[in-house]
Amino acid sequence: MLPSQKFTAAFSAAEETPRTLVENAYLALRQDIIEGKHLPGTRLRVEHLKDDYGVGAGTLREALSLLVSDALVYSEGQRGFWVSSISPEDLEDITRNRILLETEALRISIRTGTDEWEAGLMAAFHRLTKVEEKLNNSAQQFREWEERNRGFHEALIAACDSRWLRYLIGILYRQSERYRRFALGSDSKRNVHAEHQEIYDAAMSRDEKRACAALELHISTTLFVLREAPSSPSPPTQPPRRSKRDDLPPK
Amino acid sequence: MLPSQKFTAAFSAAEETPRTLVENAYLALRQDIIEGKHLPGTRLRVEHLKDDYGVGAGTLREALSLLVSDALVYSEGQRGFWVSSISPEDLEDITRNRILLETEALRISIRTGTDEWEAGLMAAFHRLTKVEEKLNNSAQQFREWEERNRGFHEALIAACDSRWLRYLIGILYRQSERYRRFALGSDSKRNVHAEHQEIYDAAMSRDEKRACAALELHISTTLFVLREAPSSPSPPTQPPRRSKRDDLPPK
DNA sequence: AAAAAGCAAAATCTCGAGAAAAAACAGGCA
DNA sequence: TGCCTGTTTTTTCTCGAGATTTTGCTTTTT
After folding, report:
1. A82 forms bridges with which residues in the sheet?
2. Does A88-228 carry CATH code 1.20.120.530?
3. Fewest CB atoms within 10 Å of the CB: B13, B57, B62, B179?
4. Do the Cβ atoms of A175 and A168 come closer than 8 Å?
């Protein structure tokens, strides 16, 4: 997320207004990585990219440094930048920790949430419901759904007073978002809305245990679905090995 | 931590060998921030700092961007960089989440740790014990203790197979390290070694509940001690307000 | 007085070119 | 063929100077 919003916006959902070319390049690059325009494991050569994104080399380097903090880009001194690799193990790891952190945040939210929190959650759920009712498979629709889904999950934990917890959750959420894009459309048979409904109902009735269980199931199911996804690319190993042509790491 | 070591070294304790000027400046800056040479809330002016650290402006900017990911530096487009503020609330927040994450990691370690893990823990505890026995108040001693303490906490969770969990713990640990430096020497009356001993014993005897309880108490006590510390600086607010002289944010 | 507007100084942001390092390639040797 | 070695090419890393924005101070207005 934008450095200035690290602790304000949980999932950095809303208005990220770039004020400099660095931030501009950062947002564009992040979008392209999450959407898969730059495949996991591929090199990000500054010389080429600076033309694509219309900025100087130094500027692009700085944008890449920012992406390192989101763990979307990996770098090694004197050897350049890569798009972070993905793997089933990594996704499982992310999922496990998302459950740990998000259920904790939800627990706090339910315990301390005010009327404002309920109102926000209600609004976010409504927005999500509307787009889930008329869900076709267009890319535009998916992007809209992605945005509202993020809004719903953010609203769930909005009353959590721990800035750090929200910040850490944000990091993990964006990671899982990238995985989800790679399995686009493969979870058609799954009834996501029912899961959301259950979480929503439990949260609104302030039932901690039931809400957390529903949320855990929800996140776990995502892992299960993605694991079965046929479009999931072969897993390159994390640290780029020295090889002749390492546009794509070996294995 | 160094971008290339984000997921390898948990607390980035060991060999962080800078390969470029950027990494060099990053490590030097981080050291100076943690040790309090740059006070929380103060501006980090690129123009001045580039001379102090002997690098170009662009290089220093990149190093600062790296520090943003450690949440040690805050930045806002077109307005520059600041040392992240500290506050009692922030410390409490960090502590709460350290407990959540580190006890989880310890639980996993105890459950899955091999003989190798026990051996590593034993060695780390021995190193720590030796320095705690002859503890005077010299800065050199304290630095040595800090390093070995980090090693002990790292060894505790070394058998945790979740890279992400270790990574997140590392972020929080460095934050609390900064707070600890600000309260140097104020925990003289506390018997830290006894706490470490209890954690160690419980972990070695594979008693999950007892070990986690001891670790939680240990981390909590740190919060309590630091909260009482007289040398703790006044808490500046996180986002730098627009003020005439904001070398030190208001309040 | 307090607030708004205007001006000067400082700092940030940005780019392109040169130095240094790594990767790719080719040739020689067992 | 397989492996080491030296050369060429590509890429990263670094710096300094110029454009833009912000900031601080002074003056003017209500």
Report:
1. A43, A74
2. yes
3. B57
4. no
- Amino acid at the residue A118: E
Token look-up 């020295």 returns A242
User: What are the residue boundaries of the structural domains of chain A, listed by start?
Assistant: 19-83, 88-228
CA–C1' distance B25–D13 (Å)?
A: 14
Same CATH fold assignment for domains A19-83 and A88-228: no
pLDDT at A234: 37
Specify the CATH architecture of the domain A19-83: Orthogonal Bundle (1.10)
Q: Does B7 touch chain A (CB under 8 A)?
A: yes
- Bridge partner residues of B80 (DSSP): B76
Q: Which two tokens stand for residue B161?
A: 């197979």
Within B11-87, residue ranges assigned H as helices are 21-34, 46-52, 57-69
> What is the third-level CATH fold of B3-83?
Arc Repressor Mutant, subunit A (1.10.10)
Distances (CA, A) of A148 to A23, A135, A141, B209: 24, 13, 11, 40
Best B60, B168, B171, B237 member to test A by mutation, with max A CBs in 10 Å, is B168
pLDDT tens digits along A150-166: 999 999 999 999 999 99
SS3 B130: helix
* Residue A146, token pair as written in the block: 């992605």
- Cβ pair B164:A94 closer than 8 A: yes
CA dist A141 to A145, A230, B174, Å? 6, 22, 42
Render pLDDT for B139-179 as a digit per residue (tens, 0 to 9). Answer: 788 888 889 999 999 999 999 999 999 999 999 998 998 88
Contact B64, B29 (CB under 8 A): yes
What confidence tier does A247 reach under pLDDT thresholds 50, 70, 90?
very low
Query: Would an 8 Å CB–CB cutoff place B23 in contact with chain A?
Result: yes
Q: How many CA atoms lie within 13 A of A60 on its CB side?
A: 18
DSSP secondary structure letter of residue B83? E
Edge-first strand listing for the sheet containing B73-76: B43-44, B80-83, B73-76
- Chain A contact present for B224, CB below 8 A: no
